[in-house]
Specification:
single chain, alpha/beta, 8-stranded mixed β-sheet
Length: about 850
């Protein structure tokens, strides 16, 4: 085997994947040691098939290594082992700060390593109580000895299917506990009294902070976060909206420090040293020495470590005049990184960095041969852009579930601008500013002006829903098939190009049929071979097209109705997909209620938690929601509409149904203005209205009441009593959705139902014989599922209401340990006394219900149920 490192790296990675994805209780480090010894014996004895045997053993070795590494990643701590603490895990915890301290608004966060024999990493979060405390927290640094008075708790786990699992995320960073403290007075920090290796990291943090401050002085506030991310890897201050815009166009790699930054850095260093007359050996060795410093200064992410190590290996090989091919270099670096930290395999930046690098090494030469472009520079630029897009596509849709049709053009047009001007000029302006600030400001002003135009272009392009595609999360098998299809397509394209025109075989004239002679078997074989040659390229293209169509809408032929009560904390959000037309209905969008007083502006965080952007939109995208057909806003309180702003901005919506009122609020005004900007049809929903979604799904509205449906939209501050209430009929099942309706609303609905029923009965005792115009307009009970009003508040869900509807299941959407103490025990007891199955998002996480053959099947994220 001439290139063993390729096989070794692939087999090692495959072993990791098996260990991660499959439960292997019999595999351990001892298994790896035994397999290694067996492999040595087999290889030395030169047994038949030794290559295949050793390949299998190498997979076992890697799987055992990963399994042992993962099993040892457990906590040995408990609150009692760390401090004298009570049952609530309150106590004083001592240790050392081992990460950079991040101060954002009223929150300070860092990682500490606890003292003692059972030392391990703990994520610390401090809620700051005043602006003075914010300044105190800014003085904490890596390496400080620290004591924290706070409460220790396990990190939160995913509460929705497919949701972000913070517990697993921290575990991959070897962190198993969170420590929460209230006030900087609960923290006692002191600088280290001895010099350690962390002192170097402490200096590096200070140096990066100094560079960040320099960027802030040079660039306007709306650009400083972006430039800090691009130049030194400080991404915490990037505007969330700006990051989202770049993300929607597939341009986030511009902001993240990666191999492009390393290439530009090395190019500048080598160019300067050559101009100064340094010898080749000198500038190669100097560049190698500078790379570790550059890696540290830019944050040492997996992608920058990969690029930096590759650069150092390439520089050393050039110094020794033994420069090898890039594929070997990248695979050696990848193998070393995976042996050092197996969890790198689970890091998206590691995956994208290596896949794109390997893809460029293998794919660009092939693409150059296939592209009918004479100019080598244009051919290279197009090949690099196309190959990078194709290689990164499955990983991007797996993690981010979106792909812009403008991404190829945006990368082709903007990446050269950023790489050839913005990044070098920005770096130069920063360095010059430390020598002579006015000169640095002049260059920074030029960069900022160019950035301003680019940001405007990105902002406009990112709002075009027409070019934004949303993809459900694909499976690993599909990703493998995708790469295999591309490999076959390129291989067959190269073969056809080498053979010339495949429509006529070069041997066909010699094997043509002549009357009176029997066609030879050689001629038949040649014809078969030529036929296969003709269809193999189209077949590979069709295979790739089928894979793409399936990935875009994998449940195209499903006829299962779905109702998902998403856990959005203290709020409501319900996702519905109809069984026949596959129409999507979204009821409310959750939201975070904030109580901010004048003078508390310092508490504002650069990237505050927003349920729509952080939770709801990612979940909808993971489930492949390309369009929302009906967005129903039951009422306009913040805990129901707060997340819908992000929904409207990122997912196309056709119709927005609301209660015919407007709440005087900046958030409500912005929401409806955004809907109008995106040409969303606004529809007022009133009692008696019917929405026929498809043959299997109908919505019948019960509330609010309007005597004149043509009346203008009126202002209404108190929204609960105006909640949209409706019954959904789907495949023979009935569902009652109630928003935050009040007892008065319940009474009004029950009265209307009774009057409607009495009026119909007075016309004809046999209601089924009435014409459609005279049949009851409002549905009656029983129902299969009741969405309990107002998160289980005692102000609704009365005895009369439950008696009228008699539901089988009741779903309560409420946040864990919410300040309102929802649901109220009286309401829960009232439901249980009637034998109604109670499902709560605070207790069960997301509640998913599916309708198959007229039966409702239930499962919950925190526990299965059917």
């Amino acid at each position: 085997m001439q290139r063993p490192i390729i096989g070794v790296t692939l087999l090692w990675t495959f072993g990791y994947i098996i260990a991660y994805g499959v439960e292997l209780p019999f595999v351990s480090l001892y298994t790896s040691l035994v397999a290694a010894m067996v492999g040595v014996v087999v290889w030395m004895l030169n047994l038949r098939g030794r290559t295949a045997i050793c390949a299998l053993l190498l997979i076992i070795i890697a799987a055992g290594y990963f399994e042992d590494y993962d099993k040892r990643n457990v906590t040995n701590l408990s609150p009692e082992s760390l401090a004298d603490s009570d049952s609530n895990a309150n106590g004083v915890y001592n240790g050392i700060i081992v990460s950079q301290v991040e101060v954002d608004g009223d929150k300070a966060s860092f990682t500490m390593r606890t003292d003692g024999e059972l030392s391990e990493l703990v994520a610390v979060s401090v809620r700051l109580l005043s602006k003075q405390e914010q300044q105190v927290a800014a003085g904490w640094q890596r390496g400080d000895k620290i004591g924290v008075q706070g409460a220790l708790q396990a990190p939160g786990e995913a509460r929705n299917f497919g949701g972000f699992d913070y517990r697993s995320y921290l575990r991959w960073k070897h962190i198993h506990w969170q420590l929460n403290a209230k006030g900087a007075s609960q923290i006692h920090a002191a600088p280290p009294d001895i010099w350690t290796w962390r002192t170097i990291l402490r200096w590096n943090d200070q140096f990066r902070s100094m560079l960040g401050a320099g960027v802030e002085r040079l660039f306007p506030p709306e650009q400083s976060g972006f430039m800090k991310g691009m130049l030194i890897g400080l991404t915490d201050d990037i505007e969330p909206e700006q990051f989202q815009q770049f993300s929607q166009l597939g341009l986030t790699h511009i902001i993240a420090i990666s191999g492009l930054n390393v290439a530009i850095f090395l190019g500048c260093v080598l160019w300067i040293m050559r101009k100064l007359g340094f010898t080749k050996e000198t500038y190669l060795l100097t560049s190698m020495a500078l790379m570790p410093l550059y890696i540290m200064v830019t944050g040492a992410s997996p992608s920058i470590i990969r690029a930096g190590l590759m650069a150092m290996i390439a520089l050393y090989a050039a110094y020794r005049h033994t420069l090898k091919d890039g594929l070997h270099t990248v695979l050696i670096v990848g193998l070393l990184m995976l042996v050092w930290e197996p969890y790198y395999l689970l890091d998206v930046s590691f995956q994208l960095s290596f896949l794109v690098t390997i893809g460029l090494i293998l794919g660009v030469p092939v693409a150059n041969k296939l592209m009918p472009i004479r100019s080598s520079s244009w051919r290279d630029a197009i090949s690099i852009t196309v190959v990078a897009q194709c290689i990164s596509f499955p990983v991007s849709v797996y993690y981010f579930n979106q792909f812009s049709l403008l991404s190829l053009a945006a990368n082709f047009a903007l990446v050269p601008v950023f790489s050839m001007f913005t990044m070098p000029a920005g770096t130069a302006s920063l360095l010059i500013s430390f020598l002579y600030q006015p000169a640095g400001q002049v260059l920074a002003w030029i960069v900022a002006k160019l950035n301003e135009w680019i940001f405007k272009l990105v902002a406009i392009s990112s709002k075009w829903h027409l070019f934004q595609t949303i993809w459900p999360t694909p499976g690993i098998a599909w990703i493998i098939a995708y790469y295999a299809a591309w490999a076959l397509l390129l291989y067959f394209a190269l073969m056809n190009r080498a053979a010339g025109d495949t429509s006529v075989s070069p041997v066909e004239p010699m094997l043509s049929y002549k009357p009176g002679k029997k066609r030879s078997s050689l001629g038949i074989y040649a014809r078969i071979r030529n036929g296969v040659s003709i269809v193999r390229l189209p077949a590979a293209a069709v295979m790739l097209a089928v894979l793409m169509i399936y990935a875009y809408e994998p449940d195209r032929w499903s006829r299962e109705g779905q109702v998902h009560f998403i856990d959005v904390g203290q709020g409501d959000s319900i996702f519905i997909r109809t069984p026949q037309s596959r129409s999507v209905i979204l009821i409310d969008g959750g939201g975070t209620v904030t109580f901010r007083k004048p003078g508390d502006e310092w508490k504002q965080r650069s990237d505050p938690y927003e349920v729509g952007r952080k939770l709801l939109v990612p979940l909808l995208k993971k489930r492949g929601i390309q369009t929302i057909d009906y967005l129903i806003v039951t009422h306009e309180d913040a805990d129901h509409i707060g997340g819908l702003q992000s929904v409207l901005e990122q997912i196309p919506v056709r119709q927005l149904l609301f209660n015919g009122t407007l709440k005087p609020s900046p958030g409500v005004e912005k929401l409806f203005r955004t809907a109008l900007d995106y040409n969303v049809k606004l529809v007022k929903a009133y009692a008696g209205d019917i929405l026929q979604v498809d043959a299997d799904t109908r919505l019948r509205f019960l509330y609010p009441v309007s005597l004149d449906k043509a009346e203008a939209v009126r202002m209404e501050s108190e929204q609960n009593a105006e909640s949209v209430v409706f019954v959904m009929e789907m495949q023979g099942t009935k569902w009652l959705f109630t928003g935050d309706m009040e007892p008065s609303s319940e009474t009004a609905v029950l009265r209307m139902m009774e009057n409607d029923k009495s009026a119909s009965a007075s016309l004809d005792t046999n209601a089924s014989s009435l014409p459609a115009s005279r049949k009851p307009l409002l549905p009656t009970g029983p129902v299969d599922v009741l969405k309990v009003a107002h998160h289980g508040s005692k102000t609704s869900t009365t005895e009369a209401w439950l008696k009228a509807w008699n539901p089988k299941f009741a779903v309560i959407s409420a946040g864990v340990n919410n300040i309102y103490r929802h649901p109220h025990p009286t309401v829960v007891a009232r439901l249980e006394e009637r034998g109604i199955g109670v499902l709560r998002t605070d207790a069960h996480g997301e509640v998913q219900m599916s309708i198959r053959d007229g039966a409702i099947h239930v499962r919950t994220k925190l526990g299965e149920r059917s």
